[in-house]
């Protein structure tokens, strides 16, 4: 594991942008990355890469990389040594824990980091610090998917594999823009649609995939639950429900179907803004397809009823019998490269590594046997609760690994106030960010090109990540930093060797029991990987996870508080999304040539609304919400309907989250980024 990297060679690793998990063949010359190609034998990407994975790598040795730890003195971050930084943090953390207890500390892990690093991060919080205050960015993206699918199927992960696109007869894409956000999978869906195969898109925006779709149900943002109930209504009242599957594999159908039959179709039509005849036609076509796949993205989850919509998608798969075989299933398009892995590794307050309850003393004995330390059963904060607890004075220290929460979490002013109220904020980062502006200590981490370990993609595929260049001088891998700190805090952790950590994970996490570094091979294995080392392409073939029956759940549409409270004063709905060229806060892609292609965020506005305000392309528009206002350049487009606005949030110059709000998914606390009540006017530059 300590082998140094040859200066001229081709090394295989995995992309660190989206959850598709494409394999990369990285050409290294004289210790520097020269180019990236798609390996011909990669099962995930089959010879393809997108603009981000293939070209957006030059951030790794960008001049902005932080090359030494920084400590804030007299309000200014100043360079320091690793020893001084570690000593300073240890002293501060120890004092905070002695005075306020371990629950005054919280950690945010990173979906950019490897499984091994995520596992160590939650172990650091639980075993070394003694708190369940550990969470990750799954909270702000697919938390509702994990919750909803777990409730319906017993497992919160994709049921099928991307290669099943070749075997299906019909695809329904809900709240996802895959050609931008998951381009390699998006291209496969687009090719499917271009062949004239039945493709149904449910999205408030005329996305690229919507243009190729057989049906585009262009609903008002925030009304997924109403639209899904309409689809379920038409299938149950006029279509063919899969009686055999329902009888043998599920429970609760009778009650569920009675409730669906009772919905007011005229009212739902009014709420969604989609013609009931179009919904009926799409529903019955989906129902008739011998095999149909469901894909969904953040346009489903980032709502106050995100979890409810996920459970209705599960209902749709079950009533049509589209579970447990090739070419079907519920397939969330996971956002970050390793967001599946971060959750699998226990970076959430209520569940440890392998999704076992963190609040049950009996179950905790399983973890304690490996951690050799008593671990807590007390309630742990989710990310939004961490900010509330900091503002209430209950949380005194936060440790954030590779996440720019000021840029990406909603209601920026509140996040800043929370971070400013802490006694200690430690941030592991590649670059100075909006969040490091409020840090007490910044520790320079390493990029994926400098790391060895594993990532798990959106189809549960655990893949080898191989370091292709040496760690930048002055920086350390995030796993190394965590191991150093655990030892400093008096909790012994063996020298950091990712393959040894993977061995530990395989003993603790039941669905990793057959995982070995060598056994993963070049194309990885999809979990569960049993003792025999074989992976699993499809879940729930004979029975649902844990031998349970699939559970039907009904939810009625409920207007979000954001509209109820603010809709009168702020009559437009803003919905946020991502462009092809950049990834989320753009920390990495803005430091590559991609920034020459997409240079700033634009507000998409329908021509009718633009005319009302005399707004033309590139005019500055002031967008106001109950939280604040931002100025953005306009892009007049029929991608959105009148009354709806849309924008990306890749550039910190705008800090769009100054205007997003505090509403979140009622179950998983995922912020409601997709519905923001706003008003607009031509900017006066004030
Ligand atoms: Fe990377 Fe996703 Fe693009 Fe593949 S599709 S190259 S994983 S960003």
Automatic annotation (TrEMBL):
Domain 4Fe-4S Mo/W bis-MGD-type span(s) in chain numbering: 8-64
GO biological process terms held by the UniProt record: ATP synthesis coupled electron transport; formate metabolic process
Keyword Phosphoprotein: no
Alphabetic keyword roster: 2Fe-2S, 4Fe-4S, Iron, Iron-sulfur, Metal-binding, Oxidoreductase, Repeat
One GO CC annotation: membrane
Cofactor: [2Fe-2S] cluster
Annotated signal peptide: none
Molecular-function GO term, any one: 2 iron, 2 sulfur cluster binding
Source superkingdom: Bacteria
Protein name, UniProt field: Formate dehydrogenase subunit alpha
Species assigned in the record: Flavobacterium gilvum
């Amino acid at each position: 594991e300590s082998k140094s990297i040859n200066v001229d060679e081709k090394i295989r690793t995995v992309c660190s942008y989206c959850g598709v998990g494409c394999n990369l063949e990285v050409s290294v010359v004289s210790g520097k990355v020269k180019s990236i190609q798609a390996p011909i034998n990669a099962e995930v990407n089959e010879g393809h890469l997108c603009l981000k994975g293939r070209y957006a790598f030059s951030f790794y040795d960008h001049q902005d990389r932080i090359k030494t730890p920084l400590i804030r003195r007299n309000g200014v971050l100043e360079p320091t040594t690793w020893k001084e930084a570690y000593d300073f943090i240890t002293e501060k953390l120890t004092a905070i824990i002695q005075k306020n207890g371990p629950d005054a500390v919280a950690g945010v892990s990173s979906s950019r980091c490897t499984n091994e690093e995520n596992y160590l991060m939650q172990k650091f919080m639980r075993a070394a610090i003694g708190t369940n205050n550990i969470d990750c960015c799954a909270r702000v993206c697919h938390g509702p998917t994990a919750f909803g699918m777990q409730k319906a199927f017993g497992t919160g992960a994709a049921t099928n594999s991307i290669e099943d696109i070749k075997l299906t007869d019909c695809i329904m894409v809900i709240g996802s823009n895959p050609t931008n956000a998951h381009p390699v999978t998006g291209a496969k869906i687009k090719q499917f649609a271009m062949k004239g195969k039945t493709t149904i898109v449910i999205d408030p925006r005329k996305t690229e995939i919507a243009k190729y779709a057989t049906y585009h149900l262009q609903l008002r943002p925030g009304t997924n639950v109403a639209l899904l109930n309409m689809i379920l209504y038409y299938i149950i009242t006029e279509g063919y429900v899969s009686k055999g599957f329902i009888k043998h594999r599920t429970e609760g159908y009778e009650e569920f179907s009675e409730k669906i039959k009772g919905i007011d179709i005229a009212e739902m039509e009014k709420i969604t803004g989609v013609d009931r005849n179009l919904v009926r036609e799409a529903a019955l076509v989906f129902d008739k397809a011998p095999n149909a796949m469901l894909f969904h993205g953040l346009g489903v989850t980032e709502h106050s009823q995100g979890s409810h919509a996920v459970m209705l998608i599960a209902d749709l798969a079950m009533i049509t019998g589209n579970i447990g075989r090739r070419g079907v299933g519920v397939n969330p398009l996971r956002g970050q490269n390793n967001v599946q892995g971060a959750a699998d590794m226990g970076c959430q307050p209520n569940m440890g590594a392998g999704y076992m309850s963190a609040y049950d003393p009996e179950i905790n004995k399983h973890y304690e046997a490996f951690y050799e330390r008593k671990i807590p059963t007390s309630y742990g904060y989710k990310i939004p609760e961490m900010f509330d607890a900091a503002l209430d004075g209950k949380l005194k220290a936060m440790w954030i690994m590779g996440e720019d929460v000021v840029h990406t979490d909603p209601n920026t002013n509140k996040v800043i106030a929370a971070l400013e109220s802490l006694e200690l904020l430690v941030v592991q980062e590649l670059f100075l960010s909006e969040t490091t502006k409020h840090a007490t200590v910044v520790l320079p981490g390493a990029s994926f090109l400098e790391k060895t370990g594993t990532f798990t993609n959106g189809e549960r595929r655990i893949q080898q990540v191989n370091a292709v260049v040496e760690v930048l001088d002055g920086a350390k891998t995030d796993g190394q930093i965590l191991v150093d700190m655990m030892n400093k805090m008096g909790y012994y952790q063996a020298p950091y060797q990712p393959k040894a950590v993977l061995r530990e994970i395989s003993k603790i996490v039941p669905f990793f029991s057959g995982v070995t570094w060598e056994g993963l091979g070049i194309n990885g294995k999809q979990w569960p990987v049993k003792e025999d080392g074989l992976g699993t392409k499809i879940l729930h073939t004979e029975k649902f996870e844990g031998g349970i029956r699939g559970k039907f759940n009904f939810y009625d549409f409920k207007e979000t508080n954001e509209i109820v409270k603010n809709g009168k004063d702020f009559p437009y709905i803003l919905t946020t999304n991502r462009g092809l060229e950049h990834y989320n806060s753009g920390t990495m892609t803005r430091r590559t040539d991609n920034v020459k292609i997409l240079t700033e965020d634009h507000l998409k506005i329908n021509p009718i609304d633009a005319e009302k305000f005399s707004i033309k392309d590139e005019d500055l528009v002031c967008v106001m919400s109950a939280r604040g206002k931002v100025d953005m350049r306009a892009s007049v487009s029929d991608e959105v309907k009148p009354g709806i606005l849309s924008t990306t949030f890749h550039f910190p110059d705008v800090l769009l989250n100054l205007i997003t709000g505090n509403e979140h998914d009622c179950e998983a606390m995922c912020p409601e980024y997709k519905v923001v009540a706003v008003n607009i006017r031509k900017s006066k530059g004030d």
